[in-house]
Amino acid sequence: MQKAVDFLKNAEVYYLATVDGDQPRVRPFGTAHVFEGKLYIQTGKVKDVSKQIHKNPKVEICAFKDGAWLRIAAELVEDDRREARQSMLDAYPSLQGMYSADDGNTEVFYLKNATATFSSFTAAPETITF
Fold it and tell me: Tell me, what's the pLDDT at 127?
């Protein structure tokens, strides 16, 4: 898992794909945080992405950096504990202007049943699960 976390952090921006009915939706994200041994992402409950995840928690993540890319297929599981939200905000202080652990909007999810595939045009793909 750490290799995937490092790739996401080094890429700085990754794209999260969800499903909205029969329409795929993709948007940029920037949070990738390990808490209690799991990879977490963060969003706001008021956003459409949150509603889509709650309706169908299967997502895909894609990031690109230095001629290589990472794709992760996973299910997202909400962790509604204050400690999980605060840990994310501590890891990303820039979010604290928009979110707080107790605002009723901050939401964190961890990846479950994740399959990460590292690819490039010059090497064979490598797949890990976590």
Answer: 98
